[in-house]
Amino acid sequence: MSDILKVVIAGLGGRGLNAYGEYMINHPEQYQIIGIADPVESKIKKITDRIKLDNKYCFKTAEEMFTGEKIADIAFICTQDCDHLKHSILAMEAGYDLILEKPLGTTLEESQKIYDKSIELGRKVFVCHVLRYTRFYKKIKEIIMSNELGEVVNISATENVGYYHYAHSYIRGHWRRKDLSSPMIVAKCCHDTDIVSWLVGEKCTQISSFGSLMYFNNQNAPEGASKHCLDGCKSKKDCPYDAEKIYITNKISGIKHGNSWPSSAITNKDLTEENVMDALREGPYGRCVFYSDNDVVDHQIVMMEFENGACATLTMCGVTSEINREITVSCSLGEIKGNMDNQKLTINKFGKDPVIIDLSENVASHVGHGGGDYWLMNDMYTYLTGKDVNNPSITSIEDSMHGHTIAFKSEDSRISEGKVIKIK
């Protein structure tokens, strides 16, 4: 493989265009985009306006791209979760190795089919477990592997989804229903089940899980709430989930305060107040959070036991003020505490003064999952071109299948009222 990786991208959404595509355009010494596929012409144009691309390699569908000639080394699969199985199989049959946005599939069975096909055809499949590539989690792994704190005994991990992120993606958005995507613990937290397993360094042997869709249903709708935020809702003033606040007026919006997400995710047109308002009137993002058709949980906990006896808990909560991840790794000789949002780790070696490691400088210019989006692209490049073949962050398809199995079995346990499930 040459020093420049030739790639095709299937799906030009937030991941394929704004994360990975943007990196490739800014790093032509590493990646060359050869072909792209997306049904939305404006998304195709966002790339062709910036780089030269042969029109015959601009496709409306991934199916069309993967049934033609093989034109690149690597295929990025960044389509909707429900299309991952179909597009991954087609790409592998066309001869491509894959960099696949998580999750593998929307069910364990779909994930297994992708795994089996990769083994059958000898294709490499790298799932985008971006947390592994952050300097935050890499440093934790480095400390654990040094053995200076002894053996990992327990991990407590928390994912605070953020109230507006949860409302956007999991009540109004593409991931609001299991039949459209996958269970919440898979769609959002297969990142986390992977990272916990990676940090422990052992296979998970059994799990138990609890959680529910407790709050976001019509029984909890405030008095006077309308089924659509723009239909004269009498609770609009005091409702933090009001669509106009989230997408236009509050600091989190991409209209008044210079952010792009989440406002950019609801329209393919220019990011103006008029276009966003039209999207709220016409699409699902203007619906009341208490009158949507969502069915995924708004909170869940997972308890895990590993081969060596170590245990871990993962807490996912949709009703939080901030979007961040927190972790405590308890070891036999000390502990590590960290918050990925502020990029600080506190190392408490028993009997010694605490040591604070500030990693914020490493992510100052790299947005997206604490810098994970940037470093995944950089580390995948150095790995695939043979410049760094010993990177501990690189995932095998076997690693990804194990992390996904934990997540899918967690959902099985949850709907079985916390039944303990063995993982083979």
Summed up:
The chain is of the alpha/beta class and 424 residues long. The chain contains 13 helices and 15 strands. The protein folds into three domains: 97 residues, Rossmann fold (3-Layer(aba) Sandwich), CATH 3.40.50; 187 residues, Dihydrodipicolinate Reductase, domain 2 (2-Layer Sandwich); 68 residues, no CATH class.
The assigned CATH architecture of the largest domain is 2-Layer Sandwich
| Fraction of helical residues | 25-40%
Cα radius of gyration in angstroms: 22 Å
Structural class: alpha/beta
Residue runs with pLDDT of under 50 for 5 or more positions: none
Strand order of the largest sheet: 14-13-12-11-7-10-9-8-15
Oligomeric grouping of the chains: single chain
Estimate the mean pLDDT confidence. Answer: 94
What is the count of β-strands? 15
H/E series, N to C?
A: EHEHEHEHEHEHEHHHEHHEEEEEEHHE
Distance between the termini: 36 Å
Q: How much of the residues is beta strand, in percent? A: 15-25%
In DSSP terms (H or I, runs of 4 or more residues), the helix count works out at 13
Instruction: Count structural domains.
Output: 3
The 3D shape can be described as globular
Q: In CATH, what is the homologous superfamily of the largest domain?
A: Dihydrodipicolinate Reductase, domain 2
The third-level CATH topology of the largest domain is Dihydrodipicolinate Reductase, domain 2
CATH top-level class of the largest domain = Alpha Beta
Largest sheet: 9 strands, mixed
